[in-house]
Amino acid sequence: MDLDGAESKSLFAQVQFYILQTENLRGDNARELARLLKENGAEEISKISITDPIPLQDITHTISTTTDFPEYEAINDALKSVVKPDWVTASIAKGRLANPRQYSPDPRLFFSGLVVCCVDLPSGDSDAIIGGVLAMGGLHSSPVSKMVTHIVALTMDSDKCRTAIEKNVKCKYVLPHWFDDCLRLGKRIDEAPYCLPDPEILRKRPGDRIPEAGRHDMLGASSPRPDHLPTPSSSPSANRRQLTVFKGKKVMLSQDLELGSHLLGTIEDLILNGGGMVTGSIHKADIFICYYRESLDYRIASRAGKDVGNLAWLYHLITHNAWTSPLRRLLHYPVARQGLPGFSRFRISLSNYNGEARVYLENLAKAAGGEFTKTMKEDNTHLITAHMVSEKCDAAKEWNIHMVNHLWLEESYAKWQIQTVSDPRYNHFPLRTNLGEVVGQTPVDRQAVERVFFPHGSDIDPSVDGDDVPRPLSAKPPTATSSRNMTGVNAHPSRSVVSLDVPFRAHQPDAPTPKASKESRRHTEGNTVRTPAPSRFIGKGKENETPSTAGSRSAKEKAVAKLHDLAPDIALFQKETKRVGGVIHGGRKSSEDMVTEVNKKRSASQDEDSDTGADDETRATKRVKKSKGLAPPSMRLALSGYKRWVGTNRKTEGEERARLREIGILVVPDFASCTHLASPHILRTQKFICALAHAPIVLSTDFVDDCLSQNRRVEPDDYLLQDTEGETRMGIKLSDSLARAKNNKGQLLRGYLIYCTESIHGGFETYKSIVEVNGGKCLLYRARAGSTAALRAGLDEEHDGSKAGTPDYVYLLSGATPEEAKLWPRFRQMIEGTGKSPLVVSHVWMLDLALSQKHQWRDIYALTDKDVRAPA
């Protein structure tokens, strides 16, 4: 008996598959793939008609090169697999079902397809890299095998690297820095600058030119209002455009598109000739095309789960004759007429982006409501740059303009909330990478858009069908007379209302489009941004363990159980990615124990200058050994108000930080991990006040200057900060404040719920960090319609349980501008309804409390109507 043959034919015995026809998977390729599967025991499931949905209940695996098809989320919810065609050949080569996670086309799993082998790395670094790769869809292999795609090493001198070369393993040899940069950005960047034996990031200087990076797939997605109708790529003839993407679909075109009669007729002809229909009823439509996110039709269609896109998305469907989600690209979705709240005060300029990527970011900034400027001046607020090498970047540093990468703009627009520019993801610029290569990969956050623009249960019922005119629930059904009157003077004269399900030339509104109502906006407690979470995670066990494909309830329960088991590991990985230094300095070795990337780069340049006789590989090896020889720091020092590295002296910062590190002093960027704080005098800066809550030893900045001038660590006790004038001016005694901070242990504001206005002096994020570092909870207060219930829920959560020890007051930090004063009555009304007492206070109250580290009250802290400043 041929046991091997029987085993081969039963390899896919439990697999019922459906092949999704895409541009890269159709015709002979699809037929060959189906043959391989069926020869090994799989069963193919087909659709009866091209317009039918994928039969989810009958399949276990969907073979696709993309996740951009309508049923993808439903397949995920059913815990069934979507895999790339490579999964089939890999399973056959292994003789067992390959892990579907490694072959997922989900762009969020940006390490999908990677098999990583770590060589001669510290165990902590190796564990962190492996954890990141597994979480983002890749696999790990301890031995060097033919399946390995990336070997992670510091040099090519290891035995495993030599073995891989001898075995002719087709893989890439990369520095661990590549994984760190990818995980920091949440995107997969090109690994070429990190490849051994001669990595570009170690060979090039920081000021060397970085090549341009273009995105060809941005064509047709760079503007929400395209200026011409494209020609379908599937048809060489412009006279007879045959489309299938609209087959069986009913399309409704909104009047806010402002299309001319000729263009409108051309678009309708394309839809009709492609087997689709044009309708004027939003309840009968499958696709709704509009420009703004404000009409009643938009909200009805969105709540009903219909495809809602703009004209650019419609043109994209026509051009490629393939369905794509309008949420996949930010400018394929309708825009907001007023823009993102608060974004209008931003003046934005671009640097180092080119081609369609630059046009896309310009239009995205305008769609968000900001002002875009081609040239940059001192009054610009933000510079969005792909890397740090340009004249604009140098000017931005000098003028203190925020420098961020494009992810800040994309995610602010996608989440419909301004993201904090201090998030490390937005300030990270890999040394030899042009971030233009990952432009346009951020999709629309549907939950955020739903929360703001079409929350459920407010004014319309999407289930109503049969009425051609959408109306509020409270409205009476229209009479025959009123229906005729509501048809409008521009309606097609030859068609009645009841015949709207047949093709007609143009949709005209049955009633004037109502103005967008103020939708309730659920309050969010912060701007935390996380690396995109994968939809599913592999369980513990064998490296290539195959999940059950039976589709039964038992299989689902097992999958959920595995997800629960893996939850602690997922949480640990997410915690690792937030730490300063990233994953390549993780595990047992703290990120603060390493010199920053800039210092290593500059010291590497000095080594090259002093060792011109050695080759590049030898110099790289020496640099690695040199960085490993540093002893753990004896002092972690945070700086506040330090002027030495400002302006022209900034060029010496990296070299002097490295010198301090060599004598045991590590300059840390955050206050949470510092043991010492250096400042010229007592300051009311965010860093000084937040660091004070941790009770560090506070020194004068003369300590840093003397350490550098003497090239040794001087005695810190001789440099304790003495600022009698500052103590008198601020009404505190620094030594007493530090003693109280030590006793408070960061819990001075425990149990306190403090709200803050959006336009407060210094910014909401500043006071949020001060409140939270002292154990309190700080929320942004906008007093928008519908937000009272959410705010009350947050208040009830904060004070749930015993009221012993909790304050009787709920505070609102506010300025005295007329705009902020308008919020006070609603805040007081909201808090009084919860049994607490509202108190509107100046920001000075919070600063004095945090500096003194004790609760104190003065009447000047309270704000009343008398304190409101007249507008300038």
Observed structural traits:
872 residues, alpha/beta, Rossmann fold, four-stranded parallel β-sheet, 33% helix, globular, disordered N terminus
Could you walk me through the main structural features you see in this protein, from its secondary elements to its overall organization?
- With 872 residues, the chain is an alpha/beta fold.
- Among the domains are: 3-98, 3-Layer(aba) Sandwich (Rossmann fold), CATH 3.40.50.10190; 343-442, BRCT domain (Rossmann fold, 3-Layer(aba) Sandwich), CATH 3.40.50.10190; 631-743, Rossmann fold; 750-867, BRCT domain (Rossmann fold, 3-Layer(aba) Sandwich), CATH 3.40.50.
- Helices cover 33% and strands 10% of the residues.
- The chain is built from 29 helices and 24 strands.
- The protein has a four-stranded parallel β-sheet with strand order 2-1-3-4. A four-stranded parallel β-sheet has the order 6-5-7-8, with helices on one face. It has a four-stranded parallel β-sheet with strand order 10-9-11-12, sandwiched between helices.
- Helix 6 links the parallel strand 7 and strand 8.
- Helix 5 crosses helix 17, helix 18 packs across helix 19 and helix 18 crosses helix 20 (653-662).
- The chain is globular, with a radius of gyration of 31 Å.
- Residues 606-615 have a biased composition (Acidic residues).
- Residues 205-241, 456-492, 505-560, 583-630 are annotated as: Disordered.
- One of its GO terms (cellular component) is nucleus.
